[in-house]
Amino acid sequence: MTPPLSLSLLSLTPLPIDTIPTPSSSRYADFTATLAAEANALLNHPAWGQHKVWHEGQGLEEVETRGLPLDVVTLEAGEWHAEPAPTADGADKKRRGFFGGVGGGAKEQKGWKAEREALHNGVAWHMRTSTIASDQYPYHVWHDALAVDHAKKEAEYIASLSRVVDVDGAGTILKLYALPFPTTNRSFLAHLIVLETETPSPTADAPPLRSFQVFSLPASTPKPLPEDKGYVRGSYVAVEEIREVVGEDGKLVIEWRCASQSTPGGNIPTRIAQSHMASSMASDIPAIFAWLAKQYGPPSDPKHSHPSLFKRLSMSGLKHLPKRGSTEPKPDAQVPNGNGHGEVPVSA
Asked: Is the CA virtual torsion 328, 331, 332, 336 positive or negative?
């Protein structure tokens, strides 16, 4: 029997940005512990479907993609977004949960549930996995490329991502996608968090195996953002994990896993959006490797053996993002899901 997967923070339900704990908050440790536990349960769940291999024999980095059956995931209203509860007298007494849920009578509670279920209806989790020899690009290169200024660098290798706006200076960013006519431009508001861990190496006297996870959580703001005008708001949640793994031959390899759930919003049918997720996630890899070669040199470049300086992060480090209004939009691309994955070439 397939074990159920209960998720709370890793969902398409947006987090009000004023409720997300900062690293200095007393709640931050519990918040990030919940994130890490849900990510590990998701990435390692046994129900991921049969894999499909992309780019095989094409001289490109091979990618595996899988899908998670819809009936595996259960959405929970845990500590971080308490489910609205009806009051004893049915009066309109409101209780704000972590996700901004407003409670009071049974009507409010039913509406909250229906809204959340509708947002996730038919939207599955998808995952891609790549295994890269560490002598191509070692861990410190991947760390610098994906853990430092993550959103800023995404805009350099995702063709349709025309602009990234730092919303609050604390990890919340607005991604703006410029799409060709007649497709409506898309926007995604997300809060980014980077967590790092080490695990003991199975090899005696070897240093610990390093890893980091990049979380993109859907977010919301009290008021509309002026940069969002004219865009259709989509929603996505994702976790990317880069980790050192000892391969069967005893050599160190880099494993890159990305799990994502998204909806582009607008009039695109969920069925069509979901059908393009796997192919689009796989197509990210050649673009990223081309960008890596441009930024860090070709794979196996001797200079990669000399680690660059980088700082340990607890958040996404957005200080280098352009200020509002300073970025020129780029042409190109298809309807995205917000994390560079799941682009859908249809009008909406």
From this structure: positive
Q: What tens digit of pLDDT does each residue of 142-171 get?
A: 999 999 999 999 999 988 899 999 999 999
Rg (CA), the chain: 20
Alpha-helical runs (H) found in the chain:
28-43, 106-120, 139-142, 150-157, 270-275, 277-296
- Do residues 337 and 262 make contact, with C-beta atoms less than 8 angstroms apart? yes
3-state secondary structure of 175: strand
Please state, in angstroms and as integers, the Cα–Cα distance from residue 290 to each residue in 129, 214, 256, 279, following that order: 18, 21, 16, 18
Beta bridge partners of 172: 191
> Looking at per-residue confidence, does 82 or 212 come out higher?
212
- Confidence class for position 217, pLDDT limits 50, 70, 90: very high
Cα–Cα nearest to 134, from 240, 46, 253 = 253
Q: How distant is the alpha carbon of residue 133 from its chain centre?
A: 24
DSSP assignment letter at 36: H
Cα distance between residue 337 and residue 339, in whole Å: 6
Q: Kindly report the three-state secondary structure assignment for every residue of 49-116.
A: CCCEEECCCCCCCCEEEEEECHHHEEECCCHHHCCCCCCCCCCCCCCECCCCCECCCHHHHHHHHHHH
